[in-house]
Fold these 3 entries.
Entry 1:
Amino acid sequence: MIYVDADACPVKDEAERVATRHGLRIAFVSNGGLRPSRNPFVDMVIVPDGPDVADMWIAERAGPGDVVVTGDIPLAARCVTKGAKVLKHDGSPLTDGNVREALAMRDLMTDLRAADPFRQGGGRGFTKADRSRFLDALERAVRAAKGAS
């Protein structure tokens, strides 16, 4: 199964293509606002509004043999702990070896933004190269997850 933290996810179409190619179910989990899919492999999961409700839904279900796509580092950490393969939107894997560092960096950046309210956030834009890296990484993660289940 592939779980996608779908709110603000820029690679939903790519994830759906990979899932379909492998005959895997994919769940797009959000608070709403997503266009429905006619793809029989796609589950559109709408959760109630509220902080981290979609994250909790995914974290309760993901485990070994699953792939999770998210930009949310705390969600990624919970899923990694449960044995799921986790990818960020640019294809970067989050693993036992790097998720704690990613959490620490997230916390540091939160503290820096709080200390300087005029600090402008936002990183670089999402590129075609990011999309391509994601497709390649998801393909590899799906194959590895299939082997683990």
Note: DSSP finds five helices and six strands in the chain.
Entry 2:
Amino acid sequence: MKKLLQILTVLAAFATAVAPAVQAAETAAARHKVVFQVSDNDPAKWNLALNNIRNVQQDLGRENVDIELITYGPGLNMLKVDSVVAARIAETLSAGAGVFACENTMRNTKTTKADLLPNIGFVKAGVTALMLRQSEGWAYIRP
């Protein structure tokens, strides 16, 4: 009987020690990842994408989702300093989502980093970045 109590005590201590690790693993597994593509020079499409990003963060909780918005082609114009959606993009960045510009498009349109909004990121090729995110299991959204 004494041996059984010792075993039960050890098992209880083990379960108490392991529970936080199991909970952390479950939380990590529940983390969502989504990448948005906006390649249009259209404020309405941009506002739709930015609204979608905000909605995902509200529905799932900012701490439970990684969000990236990747733009290339004509969409690059909306990342310029004088863009009509500049304030919305700044809000999105401050809410923890990443916004990335395609360096191929920048090079082809002779756009410099100084022409674009602060705090955005850059990818070598927008289409390739989207493809890689999808192969890594990220959900893909194109509003």
Note: The chain has a mean pLDDT of 88.
Entry 3:
Amino acid sequence: MDCDILIIGGGPAGLAFARYFKDSNLRVVVLEKSPLETLQNPPYDGREIALTHRSREIMQNLGMWQRVPENEIYRLRDAKVFNGTSDYTLHFPQPSKARGGATDRLGNLISNHNIRRAAYEEAAQCDNVEIRCGVGVKLAESNQQEAKVTLENGEVLTARLLICADSRLSQTRRQLGISADMHDFGRTVFVFRTRHEISNQHTACECFFYGRTLALLPLEEHMTNCVITITNTKAHEISDLNPEMLAKEAEKMLNGRLGKMEVVSSVHSYPLIGVHAKRFYGVRCALIGDAAVGMHPVTAHGYNLGLESIDILAKLILKAVAQGKDIGNEDLLEMYSFKHQLHTRPLYHGTNAMVTFFTTDAAPVRLLRDATLRISNHLPPLKALISHQLTG
């Protein structure tokens, strides 16, 4: 075998997974099509990642959290949900306790490029991890004896276990015959940073307007990441705007809640597609990160679920190594899939159902949307359950 674990995809999930085996005797190879410079200095891509307390714990254990500049870890104090043009909100306050101690936040926000850099820096300093950049994968296959990858340059690599971490549209997942539920929301997401006159109070907001959705992710007190979601047929209404016009559009959507606004970053757009693999493993292979589950961003669970996947699978592998067992055996991979699916499947389908409900603008549904917020505000057990999901 060329290595014990072969990881396709050098994103934050694949690299964090590789880092998990720093103190083991396992040989790990990471394949990434992007050039090395992109991993060392990932460009800003507009995405701010909301991280739960559990995710922070995992990242700290991997040394990633400590590599993010303290002034670029942003406090997420609480969250509010707005419906239509109403000022009434469903409020999720900061929890009084989290993991046995007092806390002043629901979670934290860190820019995706900082997470990617931290994951690379940690994985790169592992003696047993090789990161090969600028190389594409032509074919991935596996059998009971080994997993095998053929690179675009014709080179063949074999491993005891193959890990797919190559995005929610994973070509590797398809080649290995693992099917997935895919939901194209028919919408486009635009993300950009703004500065504004009025404090955001470190409060995240999800505003389900009619025809559009606007999420506000607080960074500094007077700097907020705006996430506008709009149907593809009307995406030009946002993409055609220059920065000044875009800032005025955000002001208008918020009815001046943050005062005068200014766009202070580049604007990025992404297609809105959700994915959930029907199982997270195959013969000598497993899916992690977005290759396993690609969530709608409304519940901010994308990378949190990615970290959860690597935490579950890596611990099972290390346990198998300690017991002298095969790290690619079906029982181990099936256990990983069962544990991770237990959480992700209801969350994935529940999120999609919620998004469909709150983006349906028919008159009767508008009234029901408003009533749902008001009723939910007066159901402490329900709010506690949702808060538990938000904090991890």
Note: Residues 330-358 form the longest helix (29 residues).
